[in-house]
């Protein structure tokens, strides 16, 4: 297993990983999430991220295939934010390689990237009922800072 920056050759694998994340996580937990978004827009979004110097796109490669991905975005300080921030936007690990430390290695690589960029803070959003993801992030020192309350109408 290898964690490395994605290349254009990985684009189809990253899009497939993103689609799996939507199907397994977001689309099952949020009725407003469009499970078809990765198929319609994922390739363009990921291709743009690969060329964005403020973005990190990592793949976990197992036996020559993309078995997971992580996407992070770095934001410089602004008039609103006094320090730079790194956001873990998207992460997925294929079911057959879960429990082998792949997610932890992806997050660790993101943390090192954020530190190397000089980020003062990192953040990630996870669904409240995704206990596995929450445990992983908390094991890497992420802690709840705000809570989003939602009501479906």
Poorly predicted spans: none
The span between the termini is 44 Å
Percentage of residues in strands: 15-25%
Query: How many β-strand stretches?
Result: 5
Largest beta sheet: strand ordering? 1-2-3-4-5
Q: What would you call the shape?
A: globular
Indicate the percent of residues in helices: 25-40%
Largest beta sheet, briefly? 5 strands, mixed
How does the helix and strand content classify structurally?
alpha+beta
Task: List the secondary-structure elements in sequence, H or E.
Answer: EHHEEEHEH
Radius of gyration: 15 Å
The helix count comes to 4
Q: What is the residue-averaged pLDDT?
A: 94
Task: Summarize the structure in words.
- This protein is of the alpha+beta class and 153 residues long.
- It is built from four helices and five strands, in the order E-H-H-E-E-E-H-E-H.
- It has helices at residues 11-29, 37-50, 102-117, 131-139, and strands spanning 2-5, 55-62, 65-75, 85-93, 121-124.
- Strands 1-2-3-4-5 form a five-stranded mixed β-sheet, with helices on both faces.
- Strand 2 (55-62) and strand 3 form a beta hairpin.
- Helix 1 (11-29) crosses helix 2 (37-50).
- The model has no long low-confidence stretch (mean pLDDT 94).
């Amino acid at each position: 297993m290898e964690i490395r920056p994605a290349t254009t050759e990985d684009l189809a694998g990253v899009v497939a990983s993103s689609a799996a994340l939507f199907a397994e996580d977001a689309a099952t937990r949020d009725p407003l999430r469009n499970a078809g978004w990765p198929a319609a827009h994922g390739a363009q979004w990921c291709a743009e991220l690969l060329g964005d110097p403020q973005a990190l796109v990592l793949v976990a490669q197992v036996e020559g295939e993309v078995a997971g991905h992580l996407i992070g975005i770095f934001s410089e300080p602004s008039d609103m934010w006094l320090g730079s921030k790194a956001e873990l936007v998207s992460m997925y690990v294929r079911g057959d390689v879960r429990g082998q430390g792949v997610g932890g290695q992806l997050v660790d690589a993101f943390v090192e990237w954020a530190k190397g960029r000089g980020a003062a803070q990192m953040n990630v959003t996870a669904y409240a009922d995704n206990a596995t993801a929450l445990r992983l992030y908390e094991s890497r020192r992420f802690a709840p800072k705000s809570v989003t309350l939602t009501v479906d109408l």
